[in-house]
Design a protein that fits this description.
It is built from eight helices and 15 strands. The protein is of the alpha+beta class. The protein has a single domain, classed as L-amino peptidase D-ALA esterase/amidase (4-Layer Sandwich), CATH 3.60.70. The chain has a six-stranded mixed β-sheet, sandwiched between helices. A five-stranded mixed β-sheet has the order 1-2-6-7-4, with helices on one face. Strands 8-9 form a two-stranded antiparallel ribbon. Helix 2 crosses helix 3 and helix 5 crosses helix 6. It is globular, with a radius of gyration of 20 Å. The protein starts with about 40 loop residues before the first strand and ends in an 11-residue tail after the last helix.
Amino acid sequence: MATKHKVTHKDVLRPRIRDLGLLIGRFPTGPYNAITDVPGVRVGHVTKVSGEGPLVPGKGPVRTGVTAVLPASGDVFLKRVFASGHVLNGAGEMMGLAQVDEWGLCETPILLCDTLAVGRVADATVAWMSKRHPGIGGDDDVVLPVVGECDDSYLNDAVGRHISENDVKTALETAKSGPVAEGNVGAGTGMQSFDFSGGIGTSSRIVRIAGVDCVLGSLVLSNFGSLENLKVGGVPVGEILESKFSHVPRRGPAGSIIVLLATDVPLVHRQLTRLCRRAALAIGRCGGYVAHNSGEFIFSWSTFNRVPRRRPHGRYRAEVVLDTALDPLHEAAVDVVEEAIMNALCAGVAVIGHSGHLAPPFPVDEVKRLLRKYHPFVKNRGTMADKKAPAS
C-alpha cells in the first residue's frame, strides 16, 4: 500500500471551507469558528486506526473512534441544561433522546460513535458518571446517557465494536475548549460525506439577540449524501465532479448525520425544538434528501439556565428570550450547520478501510476553482477566510 494512502490523522493540515473563499451566511463567527466558542462547551476525541487488508469480523481493520461533548461548564449532572432533539429520519439511533424530550433537560455528556458501539459507549459513560456520583441508582436517579451514532462499516470492522471503556473515559477527560479537530478523527474516523472522507465538522456564529451578542455553535458527525447531489454554496459541485470520481467504488446512498447545536441564548425546551427543525434545512442545502436508510438526528441545548438537580423548595426561575426575537438565531442555525458539514468535507483525509474500500479526500483545489468560476462572491473574494460578515 502506498504511503500516501495510509491514515495517520496526525499533523495533517487540511483547509476549512472559508479557506476556499466561501463565507456562508451574514453573521460573524466566534474566535475558533467551533462549537467550543459557546462558553463551557468542551470536545474530546479518541481515534482508533489499526490493521490493513480484508475484513475479519471482530478483529479488523479498525477505522473508528469516539467523540465526547461536555455541554456546559461544571457538572451537568448536578446543574442540568435545557435541551431538545428532533428526528428528521429515524433510521438510526440517538440514545437518551426520549428522556430529554420528556423532561426538556440534558444531564449527561453527549457521546458520538459508530452504530454497533452505542451500547459499549453508553455503558462506559454510565461507569464514568457513577464514579463521579456514587449516589446514581441510589439517592439519585439512574442516568440515560445521550449517545448518537453513524454507520462506519464501509471502512471499519463495525462488528468488532472496538471502542473500549478506557477510550470513552479518555475522550471525556481530555475534552477541552478551543480549536476542535475535524475530519477523520474521533467518531468521524471511518465516516464519509457525499462519497468523500470526513466525519467531524464544526462552526459557530455570533448573533445579536434582544440587544445582547450571543453564540451559536454546531458540531456534526456527518456520514450522509451522494456525490451527484452535493452543492457547495449553491453551486452543483457534485454534478461537475461526478465523472472524475466515477471509477471510485461507493458505498451507496444510505448514511446518517448527527447534528449538535449549542447556544448561550436563554431558551427552553420548546424553543430548542424549533431551533433543531431549522437546522434540518442545512442538510438539504448541502444536497441531502433524507434517504430511506439514513438517520438524521438533531440535538440542541442552551447553557444559559442551569437547573439544579436538588431543589429544596421545588421551584426554579428561568430567564427566556421571547420567540419574536429569535429569527436571527433561526437563520444562523441553518448557516452554522451548513458550514460544519462543509468543514467536515474539507478536513477529510484519504482513508483506505477494510477490503480495499477507499474514501477519497475532498478535492479542495478543484472545488476552489469551481467556486471562483461559478459563485458570484467567491470570484471577487479570493481566499479571505478571515473576513467577517456583518452582524445582524
